[in-house]
């Protein structure tokens, strides 16, 4: 199989270099790296191109639209997504390739940790989320994180890809759709490290997240509430 790694990015010149460096250290190298640039006004595009990544600039229309553009531009049989503030372990693609090589598996996703940010946010992400996500998975809700998910391109296109109007939960919806084409695998040993900057929103993050996921889980709507751009 060939594997494309896709990174959505918007004004990420500060953190993107570390993400790209972690990809260069992978044991199983990606066959291509794509950066979907949401119209950055800083050095994001230049940094990505210097690293050898293919860069596609789009209108800044939200994460669902950006991820779908990644699917459409990727040439690989498999597409692995991560984010521009995320470090992947050396065996990231090795584990992804092993898992997607199993019969009938359409999608694999893992978890993430944060080393910094608001303390309650760190506690939730690092301690509670892995346990809760396993429980949700057993209940049929795949809480797939967009910075640590991979799937077969053909199967993703067959189910319509990412919802392009979603501002949040586009990754979860993608995994739910892929259930129609095969098995989903949650690997708790597939761990990436993301920045904790999202937690800088403080208590407002809790209310925003509750509202957003309530609308998504009960009404399948995720086009009204999203995360603000935080750099």
How would you portray this structure in words?
Helix 2 links the parallel strand 2 and strand 3. It is built from 8 helices and 8 strands; from the N terminus they run βαβαβαββαβαβααβα. The model has no long low-confidence stretch (mean pLDDT 93). The protein has 231 residues and is of the alpha/beta class. The N and C termini lie far apart (35 Å). It is 38% helix and 21% strand. An 8-stranded mixed β-sheet has the order 3-2-1-4-7-6-8-5, with helices on both faces.
Set out the fold topology.
Blueprint: E1 3-9, H1 16-24, E2 32-37, H2 44-50, E3 54-57, H3 63-73, E4 78-81, E5 86-87, H4 92-100, E6 105-113, H5 119-138, E7 149-152, H6 153-158, H7 170-178, E8 183-194, H8 204-219
Parallel strand pairs: 1-2, 1-4, 2-3, 6-8
Antiparallel strand pairs: 4-7, 5-8, 6-7
């Amino acid at each position: 199989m060939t594997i494309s790694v896709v990174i959505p990015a918007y004004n990420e010149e500060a953190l993107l270099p570390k993400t790209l460096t972690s990809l260069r250290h992978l044991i199983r190298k990606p066959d291509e790296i794509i950066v979907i640039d949401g119209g950055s006004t800083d050095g994001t595009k230049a940094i990505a191109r210097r690293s050898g990544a293919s860069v596609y600039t789009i209108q800044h229309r939200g994460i669902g639209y950006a991820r779908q553009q990644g699917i459409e531009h990727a040439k690989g049989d498999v597409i692995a997504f991560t984010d521009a503030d995320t470090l992947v372990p050396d065996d990231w693609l090795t584990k992804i390739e092993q898992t997607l090589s199993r019969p009938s598996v359409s999608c694999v996703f893992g978890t993430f940790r944060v080393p910094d940010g608001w303390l309650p946010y760190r506690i939730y992400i690092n301690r509670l989320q892995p346990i809760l996500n396993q429980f949700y998975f057993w209940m049929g809700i795949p809480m797939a994180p967009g910075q640590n998910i991979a799937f077969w391109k053909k199967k993703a296109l067959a189910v319509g890809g990412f919802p392009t109007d979603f501002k949040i939960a586009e990754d979860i919806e993608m995994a739910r759709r892929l259930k129609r084409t095969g098995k989903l695998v949650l690997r708790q040993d597939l761990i990436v490290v993301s920045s904790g900057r999202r937690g800088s929103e403080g208590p407002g993050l809790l209310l925003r997240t509750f509202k957003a996921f309530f609308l998504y889980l009960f009404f399948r709507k995720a086009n009204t509430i999203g995360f603000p751009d935080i750099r």
